[in-house]
Amino acid sequence: MADRLKQVSGHLTNSYSRGLLHDEVAIITGEMHGIGKSAALLFAKEGAKVVVSDLDQKKADDVVAEIKAAGGDAIAVSGDVAADDFPQRVLEATIKKYGKLNHIVNNAGFTFDRMLHTTPDDAWDIIQKVHVRAPFRLIRAAAPYMRIKGNKENRSITNVSSTSGLHGNVGQANYAAAKSAVVGLTKTICKEWGVFNVRANTIAYGYVLTRLTQAKEAGASIEIDGKKVALGIPGGRSSVTNTAPSAGGSQAPPGIPLGRGATPDEAAAAMLFLASPLASFVSGHTLEVTGGAGI
């Protein structure tokens, strides 16, 4: 670990032969076109063997192909994280291929926005099922591979929350409740599994440039339980583009001191930090990745 920590004074390695997560195994769920994809590529670049999961088999396969083309190691296990058989399928594939598990990143999710007084039961229930029940069931199923006394390997669980879960948000009673629950779940894991040297943290994202923040009028959607759910924000990101330092400036979302939304790569970097030895004494924490919004 000391050798890895020396990298703080320089660059993260560009080689797959070593890195912050060298020879560690990580399951990353969801968004293999956004934050999940960026995280999978970044974890692999830092030496991890990555188990890529997405609802869309092709997206998962494409990310695995990209990792392998760069010399990394990854497998794809597609499917609905809320399905009853999902935890067992992804864990069996992981252990069969790599023999161990170091990290779980529960990133899969979506929004199903309605004003509270017009929110139907199904819009409430599916958000709780995907954002709370699914991470809980995957973590519970992973217990035999993580609750190992005396194991000193770097191991962690990262659950994705949102500023909606910390502060609430108009039109997102279902999402805000679910993302708030994730924080409590994570703190409990921290207290129960710390004795097994497993760290558990939450990331609360603010405005990240993904399908969930693009204009709803763009027509992006996801199919859940046979129902099409529209993604995006009405009138959102139609005029707000990537204003990361490497890109040209444009209209910034209001209330963000940095004056822009985060890129998926910036969002994924927070996941890497919490999984890496750089955060070896960080557990039970909620890391706000917001560009200063909500302070």
From TrEMBL:
SUPFAM superfamilies: NAD(P)-binding Rossmann-fold domains (SSF51735)
Domain of life: Eukaryota
Protein family per UniProt: Belongs to the short-chain dehydrogenases/reductases (SDR) family.
Keyword Oxidoreductase: yes
Pfam families: adh_short, adh_short_C2
SMART domains, sorted: PKS_KR
Taxonomic source organism: Phlebiopsis gigantea (strain 11061_1 CR5-6) (White-rot fungus)
Gene3D superfamilies: NAD(P)-binding Rossmann-like Domain
This protein's record includes keyword Chaperone: no
PANTHER family the record matches: 3-OXOACYL-[ACYL-CARRIER-PROTEIN] REDUCTASE, SHORT-CHAIN DEHYDROGENASES/REDUCTASES FAMILY MEMBER
Keywords: NADP, Oxidoreductase
GO biological process, one term: fatty acid biosynthetic process
Name under which the protein is recorded: Ketoreductase domain-containing protein
One Gene Ontology term of the molecular function aspect: oxidoreductase activity, acting on the CH-OH group of donors, NAD or NADP as acceptor
Residues annotated as domain Ketoreductase: 24-196
